[in-house]
Amino acid sequence: MVLGGVWAHIAAALYGPVAWRRAADLAGRIAPHISGGQVLDLGAGSGHTAALLRLWHGFSVTLLDVPPHSGAFGQRWIAQPIAGMLAQQYSLPRRSYDGHTVPFPDQNFDTVLLAFVLHHCPDPEQVLREAVRVSRGRVLVLEDTGGATGWADALINLEWGHPQQERTRTEWLALFAACGLSVQHEQGWTSRYGVRVAHTLFVLERASAAHQAPAS
Known about the structure:
Blueprint (H helix, E strand, L loop, with lengths): L1 H29 L7 E5 L5 H10 L2 E6 L7 H17 L4 E3 L12 E7 L8 H11 E12 L3 H8 L11 H10 L2 E12 L3 E11 H6 L4
Parallel strand pairs: 1-2, 1-4, 2-3, 4-5
Antiparallel strand pairs: 5-7, 6-7
Helix pairs in contact: 1-2, 1-3
């Protein structure tokens, strides 16, 4: 346990300069579109973005992720040790799950966040449907929508032997519609953290919820 804690601090020190800068950018884009104070960060990774949503904006954020598979070296050695440390530092509840059924009741969170998660999922539709189920209507999806390749993503994340479900904007929109979600807002931008990649933030609502309340 002590050795693990020491390694988490070493990993955080090495990864932190880039991770905090990227998290600050993402938190600034995400925060205006969070509906309510209870947020589930589904596929939370290192937890840096969740920590800033808690620290800067006062949201109550729960971290949820899957155990790293055998080829997920970045998750095993960097992201998850750091997430455990940040969860303690910033009072972020943290859970693990099987990647199929989210271990929370229906409509348990105001907003569910999926930040660069779906393209790593063997069954992205199942994950998205679970996100819809445990939300009270709003789901935020951030995804790569151009400029990345599977090998570049694997290299950045130090992950091999895992599905790469990259899609075009049109294909993401079709998936959202299949899950009963309507797009309330889109925001595109390009990051340059080693590889130039185009991203999009999709602000989504369940079709029924979107009819009941205007988008923020």
